[in-house]
Design a protein that fits this description.
Blueprint: H1 3-19, H2 21-28, H3 47-69, H4 72-97
Helix pairs in contact: 1-2, 3-4
Length: 98
């Protein structure tokens, strides 16, 4: 700022203080940084993350159960579910980062 602009600004500040002291006091206080958005207690994760986690657990159970029972169909379904869980989990995680 130039010296002239600073003088004009100071004059405006003095004029404001004379006309409206409450507003002048409020404007002279330092600006507080905005508080980061926090989750309320007990709020849940984005739906995509929850769905992805459930599918992940289900896929693991199918793969482990299929391996223990020697059931290739269960193993195949488990692998498909594991691959499918990745999409909602990643989509939900990306929504949470925004």
């Amino acid at each position: 700022m130039t010296r002239r602009q600073r003088r004009q600004l100071a004059a405006l500040g003095q004029q404001l203080a004379q006309e409206n002291p409450e507003l002048a006091a409020q404007l002279s206080q330092p600006v507080r940084p905005p508080r980061p958005a926090t989750r309320a207690a007990g709020s849940s994760s984005p739906l995509g993350v929850v769905i992805g986690q459930v599918l992940f657990v289900l896929g693991l159970l199918l793969v482990i159960g299929g391996a223990l029972l020697s059931a290739p169909t269960a193993i195949t379904l488990g692998v498909i579910v594991l691959l499918t869980c990745w999409v909602p989990w990643q989509y939900g995680s990306a929504a949470r980062r925004r």
